[in-house]
Amino acid sequence: MKKLLSFFLAAVLMLSMTACSGGVDKTNAGKGSTKKPVTTSKSGKDSGKFNESALSGKKPELKILTGYEAYNFNEQPANKLEEEMTGYKVKWFNLPQENADKKLILDISGGESYDLIMRIGASSANQLFEKNALQDLKPLLDKYGKNILAGVSDMALQSVTTEDGVIYGIPHEAFDGPQPGGDPYGILKGGIGFNMKYMKELGKEVPANLNDFYNVLKAYTDKTGKPALTTMASAWLNYVMAGFGMGDAGWYEVDGEYLPRIKNPAVVDYLAYMQKLYKEGLLDNDMPINTIDTAKEKFTNGTALAYPVMFWAIDGIYEAFKATGSDAKVQVATFLAKDANTKPVVYLRQGISALSCIPKTAKNPEHAINWFNIISDKENFKKIYIGEEGKSYEIKDGSYYPIFPAFNDFTNSDKFTGVLQTDVAFKMWQARARKTDAMAEMYDQMNSRVGDYEVKNYYESYASSLPEVRDNDAALGTMVNDKLIQAIADGGDPKKAIDNIIAEWDKTGGKEYEAAMKKWHDENKDTMK
Amino acid sequence: MKERRKRKVTAFDVINITVMCLFGVVTLLPVLQVVAKAFSSEGPVIAGLVSFWPIDPQIDTVLYVLKKPEFGGSFRVSVIVTILGTLIAMLLTVSVAYPLSKPKLRGRKFFLYIFVFVMLFNAGMVPNYLMYRSLKLINTIWALVFSGVFSVFNMFIVKNYFESLPETVEEAAKIDGASNMCTLVQIVLPMSLPVLATVTLFYGVGFWNNYMSGVLYITDASLKPLQQYLYDLITEAMNTIDEAGNIADIDSAMNLTGESVRSATIVVSTVPILILYPFLQKYFVKGMTIGSVKG
C-alpha cells in the first residue's frame, strides 16, 4: 500500500512538472496566434443599452491600459492630480515596448477587463475593432461625453465612425501646430544645425535655399576634407526636401492626382541632389549606417559642419561641444527654399496621433467615459498638462513659459490628458518647448522667420484607420526608405532608381494602398484646406 | 606518482594563446565602454569621446539611477523572483531528479519519455498565456516565478549526477535505518554540491535574465522585471520615430533617456549577478561535466 501511494505521489508530482515545464521563455511574441473574444455583434448596436443610473453610487477604481513609457504612470504627479480632480482612482497598466500590438490583442482577446485603452495607435485600435473587441462609443459619448465631442474635430470623429454610425475610438489629434489659418509661430521644431565657429571661419552665412546650402557644404569639405553634413540613416531629409516642394507629408496632390511621396515627380530631382552631396563627400558617406548617436557624435566632436538638430537636443549638443573644448554656438537653417526667389514650404501635420477605446470586456464603460470627459474639460486639460498660471507656468506676450521647479511635476503629464481643440493645446505645449534657456532660444530662433513660410497642412493620418493603410504603410515605408538610401549611396541614374522603387511599391501592396488613399482623399478633400 | 612531462612550447601555442587572449580582451571591451560611459559626464558621451576610461568622472548618474523609483521597483521584483524562483526550482528539480535516478522506479522510462517529449515540444505562447490567465496569475509575481520554475535540461543534469554517486553509500545509510527522505537530504545532497551549485546558477541567471515573461504576463509597471525595464529603456527612442524617420511623438522624444543614464542602468543591473558568479564559479565547470557520460 505504501509503495502504491509513493508511486501515485511520484506520478502526480512528475506530471505536474511536465505541465509546468515546456520552456515558456523560449517562445517569442511573434509566433502567437489570437483568439476571438466572446463578444456579440460587430455593429455594436447591442452595446447601446447602458445603465441609466450607471454613474450613481460609489465611483469604482478604473483599470486603464496604455502604451509604453519609461515611467510608472501610477506614481506620476498627474495621476494624483486627476484622482483629486475626477474622484476616480485609476490603476494604470502599460503595454511593453516590443510587440505592443500583439500583447494588446492577446490581453483583450484573453478577456482582460480594462475599462479604457488609452492612446494606442490607430492601426491597433482598428485591429481590435475588426476582431469585434471594442464597444460602440456613440451612445456613451452622446450621454456622458460633451467635452470630448467638443474637443475633437469633425474630420477626426468621422475617421473613427463606421458606415453604420459606430464610433470605436476617441481620436487624440496631433497638435503639431495651429488649425489651418492659425498663427504659425512655433511650428518649426528642427532644422539643419550649423557649427557657427566653422561658419565664421568659412565666412559664410546660414543658407536659406538649396544652392546656398550646397555652396556652404562644399566650401567646408573643400577646406577640411571632411564630410560637411552628417545625419542618421534616413533617405528623407525633410529640410532639404522642402526645396523640392515636399516635406514630412507622405502624400501629395500633384496636378489633381493624389500620389504617395515616392511617385511625386520631384523625388527624382531630390534623389539627384542627395546623390551629388553623397558623391562629392559633402554628405557623410557613413550615412547609410549612421545611428542618431553616431551622427550626433560627428557633429559635436567637430568632424561635421552640419547636422539635423531638434530644438530640445540643444542642451546636450552644447554640453558635448564643451567637452571637446569648443565654445561653438549652433544656428539652424530650417526648411530650405528652392531658390532665393521662392517661398520656403513647410508641411504641417493635421491628424490623429492616437486613439482611446473601450473594450467590450470593460466593467465600467460609463465611468470610463465620464472620467475621460472630466479630463477633457478645457480648464482641467490645462491643469493636468501644464498646471496653474503663476505657479507652474506664465504667459508673456501671449506665449507660454514654464516656472521651475513647479513645472517639473508636468514633465510626463502629456500622456494623462484628454482631448482638446488642437490649436489651444498647441499654445500650451509651447511651455514645454521653453524648458531651458537654450531650448527656448533655439525654438524661438527656428521660428523667427516662420512668417516667410508657406504652410501646407497635410491630413493623411486621419486615414490611418483604413485596413489598407494599416496593412501596408509600415512595410512600404521601410522598403522605400531602405532602397532610397541605397540609391543615394549607389549614385546611379536617379530616374531609373525611382522607377525600380515604384515597381517594387506596386508589387508589394502599394496599388491597394494607393487606391484606398485616393478614395479617402476624394471623399474628404473638401474638408482639407 | 607520474612524473610531469615537460612539454615544449611551440609557435602554435604562442599564436593560439595570443589569439585567445586578444579574443578575451575584445569581448571585454564593450563592457568596459559601458562602464566608462556610466561614470562619465553626458557631454563627453554625446561627443563620442569616451572609449574605455571615464572622462570627466562622476557618480551622479549612477546615484540618479539608484534613486529612480522605476529602477528600484524593477530591481526589487527581479531580486524577489530570482531568489524565490531559484529556491522553488531547486526543490522541484531535486524532487524529480532523485526518484528518476533510481533504476528500480516503476514506470521510470515512461516518465523519462514524457520529460524528453516536453523538452522538444511545448504548448506555445498563447495556450501558456491562457493557462496563466485562467489561474489568475497575470500581473502577479508568480507569473514571473512559474514561467521558469522547472527546466527538464537541468533536471537531467542533476539526475545524471545522482546516478553517478556510489550506490553503496545509500545502501549503508538504509542499513543504518535512514528513510528515503533522510538519505536524500543527509547523504545525497551533501555529496552533490557541485551539481546543485551549477544548476542553482543556471536557474538564478535564468530568472535574473528573464525578459519574455514580463512582456507576456505583466502590464502593471510596478511588477515589471529588471530586464524588461532595461530593454525598454535602451530601445525607447524607437517609439518616437516613424518609418520615414519623422518624429512621431514629440513629447516622448523630448524626454528620452540619455546615453550615460542608460549605461549606468546597465551597469547597476549587472552587479548582483556579477557578485554571485565568483562564489559559484568554482563549481561551475565541474558541475557541467560531472553529469555527463563517463569514458
Task: Walk me through the structure.
The complex is a heterodimer of chains A (529) and B (295). Chain A is of the alpha/beta class. Chain A has a domain at 55-176 and 352-422: Periplasmic binding protein-like II (D-Maltodextrin-Binding Protein, domain 2), CATH 3.40.190.10. Helices cover 42% and strands 12% of the residues of chain A. A five-stranded mixed β-sheet of chain A has the order 2-1-3-11-4. A three-stranded antiparallel β-sheet of chain A has the order 8-5-9. A two-stranded antiparallel ribbon of chain A has the order 6-7. In chain A, helix 11 packs parallel to helix 18 (467-490) and helix 18 (467-490) packs antiparallel against helix 19 (494-524). Mean pLDDT of chain A is 87; it is low at 4-49. Chain B folds into two domains: 11-58, no CATH class; 62-290, MetI-like fold (Orthogonal Bundle). In chain B, helix 4 packs antiparallel against helix 11 and helix 13 packs across helix 15. The chains are: A alpha/beta (529), B mainly alpha (295). Chains A and B meet through helix 1, strand 2, helix 3, helix 12 and helix 13 of A and helix 2, helix 4, helix 5, helix 6 and helix 12 of B.
Largest sheet of chain B: none
Number of strands of chain A: 14
Mean pLDDT of chain B: 87
As for the CATH topology of one domain in chain A, it is: D-Maltodextrin-Binding Protein, domain 2
Can you give the mean pLDDT of chain A? 87
Radius of gyration of chain A: 26 Å
The helix-strand sequence of chain B is HHHHHHHHHHHHHHH
- Which percent range fits the helix content of chain B? 55-70%
Task: Indicate the topology.
The complex is a heterodimer of chains A (529) and B (295).
Chain A: H1 2-20, E1 62-66, H2 77-86, E2 90-94, H3 100-109, E3 116-120, H4 122-130, H5 138-144, H6 146-151, H7 154-159, E4 170-173, E5 190-195, H8 196-202, H9 210-224, H10 238-241, E6 251-254, E7 257-260, H11 266-279, H12 292-300, E8 306-310, H13 314-323, E9 330-333, E10 345-349, E11 352-357, H14 365-375, H15 378-385, E12 393-396, E13 399-402, H16 422-433, H17 437-446, E14 454-458, H18 467-490, H19 494-524
Chain B: H1 11-38, H2 42-46, H3 60-67, H4 69-100, H5 108-120, H6 125-134, H7 141-146, H8 152-164, H9 167-175, H10 180-191, H11 193-208, H12 212-217, H13 226-235, H14 250-254, H15 259-290
